[in-house]
Predict the 3D structure of the following.
Amino acid sequence: MALDTAHVAWLLKQLKHLYPDAKVELDYRNAFELAVATVLSAQCTDVRVNKITPALFRKFPDAAAMAKAFLPELEAMIHSAGFYHNKAKNLLGLAETLMREFGGVVPDTMEALLTLPGVARKTANVILGSAFHKAEGVVVDTHVKRLAQRLGLSREETPEKIERDLMSLIPRRHWVVFSHWLIWHGRRVCFARKPKCAECGLQAMCPSAFMV
């Protein structure tokens, strides 16, 4: 059974206390850089992406420059991110679509973002929340999925259904930062294997404490 309103309120208070500075851990300076970094982050760590993007953004600082990139060069620059053939194709397509449809500017609506190659709902939520400060949904990555289930916030398995559960439980003003809180907690305490339950500030209300 999902947590009740009082439990959710306690959880939000605890997470805010534990991670007052939580934010996306990808390095970026604008919406275009965040979009590129987020596409690269699929099945890749933010740490690895942050090692790749400085050189990438020096070479391709905006959509106009990236749209003219040669695919093999792009693949070589992002090779260590994994799945580089598909990611390079998506990045090139993303830049070309931005130039063709949006004047080279990253759009700030969910509908428009979802037309960009490589951008699904999770990526769009990251861009909207962190680049435009718009709460259109909750980012559900592997950490958020794991913690939502462990904390009893959702019994669902798919990101789409988990997001719907979280959107119904969490006040909209917290949607953006809530995902950051869970991601930070998942990376620092609530690991997929051997979570640090004894050190966890959410232990008192976690139905999965010491059970993983």
